[in-house]
Design a protein that fits this description.
The complex is a heterodimer. Chain A is of the alpha/beta class. Helices cover 31% and strands 26% of the residues of chain A. Chain A has a single domain, classed as Vaccinia Virus protein VP39 (Rossmann fold, 3-Layer(aba) Sandwich), CATH 3.40.50.150. Chain A is globular. A four-stranded antiparallel beta sheet of chain B has the order 2-3-4-5. The structure holds S-adenosylmethionine (SAM). Chain B: InterPro entries: Trm112, Trm112-like.
Chain lengths: 211, 123
C-alpha cells in the first residue's frame, strides 16, 4: 500500500467522542500515524506478517495502520471501553481483523514471546507523571523485535538513558522529529492548537530467554 | 478474541502463580475466514503452548487438533497447517468469559473484547 493511500484511510477513522483528560486521550493524526507505521514496515520490516501490539490503542489508528500494512495478528490494548468500541467499529468499516483487550498496560500478564513489535502513542505523562515511562518499560519486555513510540522531544535524553540503562533496550534511536498538533480538545488549552515537538523512536529489546 | 490471543494471556491477579491457561467459558463462538500464511504458522508453531491451544480449540467446538504436542516435522504437512490456521486465527470467542485457573475469577468477554481490568484488591 502507498503512503498516501494509508494516510487517507486513517484520516477517515472515527476518533474519541468524549476525550477523557485524565487518560490523555488525543488521537495520533493520520499524517504521523501513517509515517510511523510506513517507516516501521518499509525501512525495518517490522510489520508485515508479524504479531503487533498497540499499547493505549484508543480508537485504533496505529493498530489499523498495522493491519493495513499486512500485520498477521494485531492486538490493541486500552483501559477505556468507549474507545475500544470505536476501535472495533473502525475495524469493521475497514473490513480488517483487530483483536482488542481492555486492560491497564502495566497489569496485563503475557505468556511467551509471541509479540514481535509494539507500536504506541503513550500518554505523555502530563496528567499522570511517569505514564510514558511505564508504557515504555512494559513494551520493551513484551516485544521481541522492536518498539515504536512517540515521546516529547524535551524528554529525549531522559528516555534514552532510561531505555538503555533500566529497561533492557539494546538500542534506542530517534528516527525523526515531528510536530504534533494537539487539537484543542480540552478547555484548559488556551490557544487553538498546541503544537509540540515529538520524537518518533525505535527501540530494540535485548534478546530474551523463553519464558 | 482469537485463540492465538488466548495463548498469550495469563491471569494477572496479585499472588497468582499459575495463571495460564485461562479457562474459556464460551457463550457465543463465531468464525471469520482469513488468508492462509504458511510461513507465519510455521514460525508460530514453536512459540505456541500446544496443550493450551488444543484444549481451547476443543472447548470452542473444533476438535481437529491432536492432544499430544506434534513433532516439529508436522509443519511440512499442508493438512496440519490448515487445521492449525483455523484453530489459531479463525475461531473467535465473541461472548463468554475467561476464568483464572487458580482463583476462579471470571473475566467477561463482550463483543469479542476480554475485560481484564482488575479490582483494587487484585493489583
Ligand atoms: C495519546 S492517546 C493515543 C490513542 C491512540 N493510540 C491513537 O493513536 O490515536 C493514549 C491512549 O492511552 C490510553 N491509556 C491511558 N492510560 C492507560 C493505561 N494505564 N493503560 C492502558 N491504556 C491507557 C488512553 O485511554 C488513550 O486511548
Amino acid at each position: 500500500m502507498k503512503l498516501k493511500q494509508l494516510e487517507s484511510l486513517l484520516g477517515n477513522l472515527q476518533q474519541f467522542q468524549n476525550p477523557k483528560i485524565e487518560l490523555e486521550q488525543y488521537p495520533t493524526g493520520a499524517h504521523i500515524a501513517s509515517r510511523m507505521l510506513y517507516t516501521a514496515e518499509n525501512s525495518y520490516d517490522d510489520i508485515s506478517g508479524k504479531v503487533v501490539a498497540d499499547f493505549g490503542c484508543g480508537c485504533g489508528t496505529l493498530s489499523l495502520a498495522a493491519t493495513l500494512l499486512d500485520a498477521e495478528h494485531v492486538i490493541g490494548i486500552d483501559v477505556d471501553d468507549e474507545s475500544l468500541e470505536i476501535a472495533s467499529v473502525n475495524a469493521d468499516e475497514l473490513e480488517v481483523e483487530l483483536e482488542l483487550i481492555q486492560s491497564e498496560i502495566k497489569n496485563l500478564q503475557w505468556r511467551g514471546q509471541i509479540v514481535d513489535t509494539v507500536v504506541m502513542n503513550p500518554p505523555f505523562g502530563t496528567r499522570k507523571k511517569g505514564a510514558d515511562m511505564e508504557f515504555l518499560s512494559v513494551a520493551l519486555k513484551v516485544a521481541s523485535q522492536a518498539v515504536y513510540s512517540l515521546h516529547k522531544t524535551t524528554t529525549r535524553e531522559h528516555i534514552k538513558r532510561a531505555a538503555l540503562r533500566d529497561y533492557n533496550a539494546s538500542s534506542a534511536e530517534v528516527i525523526c522529529e515531528l510536530r504534533y498538533d494537539l487539537p484543542k480538545l480540552y478547555k484548559f488549552h488556551k490557544k487553538k492548537d498546541v503544537d509540540i515537538a515529538v520524537d518518533l523512536w525505535r527501540f530494540v529489546p535485548k534478546a530474551k530467554q523463553e519464558s | 478474541m482469537r485463540l492465538l490471543t488466548h495463548n498469550m494471556l495469563a491471569s494477572n491477579i496479585k499472588g497468582v502463580t499459575n495463571g495460564f491457561p485461562l479457562r474459556i467459558e464460551p457463550e457465543k463462538i463465531i468464525e471469520k475466514p482469513v488468508d492462509f500464511n504458511p510461513d507465519f504458522l510455521k514460525n508460530m508453531f514453536s512459540k505456541i503452548d500446544w496443550k493450551a491451544l488444543a484444549d481451547a480449540s476443543k472447548i470452542m467446538g473444533y476438535a481437529e487438533l491432536p492432544d499430544e504436542v506434534p513433532e516439529q516435522t508436522v509443519v511440512e504437512s499442508d493438512e496440519f497447517l490448515r487445521k492449525f490456521h483455523h484453530a489459531l486465527l479463525e475461531v473467535h470467542l465473541e461472548e463468554g468469559a475467561l476464568v483464572c485457573p487458580e482463583t476462579g475469577r471470571r473475566f467477561p468477554v463482550n463483543k469479542g473484547i476480554p475485560n481484564m481490568l482488575l479490582h483494587e484488591d487484585e493489583v
